[in-house]
Design a protein that fits this description.
Layout lengths: L1 H28 L4 H4 L6 H10 L6 H13 L14 H36 L4 H15 L2 H15 L15 H27 L2 H8 L4 H12 L2 H16 L1 H7 L5 H10 L3 H29 L1 H7 L1
């Protein structure tokens, strides 16, 4: 088991190193911050002073190794767009809103997807199962930005039940959380249904029914518990996708979270902030997958021996 965990941690470090290279290159592909931070009539001397101030006068390899060394200490430098603010300080300041939004979206996904997935499997090939399949198909085919706009139009503009944006009060989180969790509901529901169908056909379920155990106990206690391993794997990925997918949702609803910060930083060509946001999201994504791998190995001992 220890060898399995060590190997998985080693893979996670390699992936994180690759992410650091990709984000460094793509951040600079967005353009030079001089174009947005200095006036059009800036002199060559002013441009050179700006480049030296932010270390942009160095070669790309030098800039990357400086970035890597500082990132290990949690120092991504000062923001170019927001004066006198550190890049990581801005990210940490806005991250709680993104975390809250992601947690509510995940909660909505689980509360909706698991019951529908279980009932679709139990009532296979019925009208309920058909409606569940249509629901899953629509959920995975609907773009989040379009769904967010439609929810704003219907529930915020037409009937005025929820605010169109901002983070004041309690109701602000309802529409963004539904928008963010909708795709996850569809994906998780389909996997729960498939896993339940496999478990329902096993001999021990038939034996439990023969013994006279109540049907609801057979379904929700015995079957669901044994069918939870495949959805658990997907759940870790979906939880990470919720956090990283907040960029679109926060932009649509004008929420001052980490995702919206990333968009503002890209528009302002703020290298330090872009790098801090992407690295944070990458750490969350890799960390969630690593945690699921380890938990999966505990739940199913065959995994740690087959893949170690």
């Amino acid at each position: 088991m220890q060898r399995f965990i060590i190997v998985r941690c080693f893979y996670a470090i390699i992936v994180l190193f690759a992410v650091s290279i990709i984000v460094f290159v793509l951040a600079r592909a967005s353009g030079n911050p001089i174009d947005t931070m200095l006036p059009l009539d800036a002199t060559p001397e002013q441009q050179q002073a700006f480049m030296e101030l932010w270390g942009l006068d160095k070669s790309y390899p030098e800039q990357y190794f400086d970035f890597l060394a500082n990132a290990f200490r949690g120092d991504f430098g000062d923001s170019v767009k927001w004066a006198d603010r550190t890049a990581m300080g801005l990210v940490i300041e806005r991250f709680p809103l993104t975390l809250k939004l992601g947690a509510v979206a995940i909660g909505i996904s689980v509360l909706i997807a698991v019951p529908i997935g279980v009932l679709s499997a139990v009532k296979k090939d019925t009208i309920f199962d058909l409606n569940g399949k249509v629901f899953a198909l629509l959920g995975q085919a609907t773009p989040p930005f379009w769904l967010g706009i439609m929810l704003i139009w219907i529930f915020a503009v037409e009937v005025d039940w929820f605010p169109t944006g901002g983070d004041e009060g309690i109701l602000w989180i309802v529409l963004p959380a539904i928008t963010l969790g909708w795709f996850q509901v569809a994906a998780l529901m389909r996997l729960v249904r498939s896993a339940m169908l496999e478990v329902l056909e096993t001999e021990y379920v038939t034996l439990a029914r023969v013994k006279g155990i109540q049907e609801w106990k057979v379904i929700w206690k015995h079957c669901l518990r044994n069918a939870s391993i495949p959805p658990l794997t997907l759940f870790g990925i979906l939880a990470a996708q919720v956090m990283t997918g907040a960029i679109v949702t926060e932009t649509v609803f004008s929420l001052p979270g980490t995702g919206n910060l990333a968009i503002e930083a890209i528009r302002g060509r703020d290298y330090p902030v872009i790098q801090a946001v992407v690295v944070l999201f990458a750490v969350i994504y890799i960390g969630m997958n690593l945690a699921v791998d380890i938990l999966y190995a505990y739940l199913d001992p065959r995994i740690r021996y087959d893949r170690a």
